[in-house]
Amino acid sequence: ENVVKLYSFLLQYLKDLFEDASEQDIREHFQLLSKIMPHLYELTQLNPERMSNTLLEVIKEKYGEFRKNHKMYPSLDTLVYFKLVANLYSTSDFRHPVVTPCFIFMQHVLSRSRVRTRQEISMGLFLVTVVLEFVSQSKRLVPAIFNFLQGIVHMSIPKRDVEQLEITPPFERDGPLSKLLALSANTESTNLEPEKLQPADLVTQTITPDFKVRALDTSLLLIKEALQLVE
């Protein structure tokens, strides 16, 4: 019983850490998560059924919140729980009491939530990364991740007002959001170097030229990874 309480406490602790994370502390929080992860794994092994039920209840609560407004991305702690599941459980099983609900939940977010800010784009790319972890063994084809990555590439293409490229929701085929990540043709943008997404991207709203490069570069790498899985 005490072990279950400790497990619940750690889950709540992660919620408190990431729910209100800022640019200043988000990197430290992820470093702490890496240190806590092995201990959570050990606790899970002590009583797999009880621990799984505890985590599943948290996921159910998060999904209930998401359903109330599915156009909004869930809070960052929800994404951290998904990452937790990817590390604590075997994701190769066709059905799993914890993995399967999370797998469906993530696809719903990628397919339904609006993508308008740096944070939402980063959260989506984070989710794609976790989904790919989920299917790394089973090599399942997940249309939601291809649609999302295609949407990010679509947003990175400069378009004239008369141009319309077909795209699937939650992305828009025209208007300002359809070229949200497109770089303007100026000298400043030509000096930008590709780099990985930063932890701060998950808690920042403003889209900058260097973020546009990061988002596109990450998307292209994830497309390559996803295609290699299903070849």
Automatic annotation (TrEMBL):
Keywords: Nucleus, Ribosome biogenesis, rRNA processing. It comes from the Eukaryota. It is found in: Nucleus, Nucleolus. One of its GO terms (biological process) is maturation of SSU-rRNA. InterPro entries: Nop14. The keyword rRNA processing applies. GO terms for cellular component: Noc4p-Nop14p complex; small-subunit processome. Its main location: nucleus. Involved in nucleolar processing of pre-18S ribosomal RNA. Has a role in the nuclear export of 40S pre-ribosomal subunit to the cytoplasm. Belongs to the NOP14 family. PANTHER family: NOP14, NUCLEOLAR PROTEIN 14. This is CG5824. The gene is CG5824.
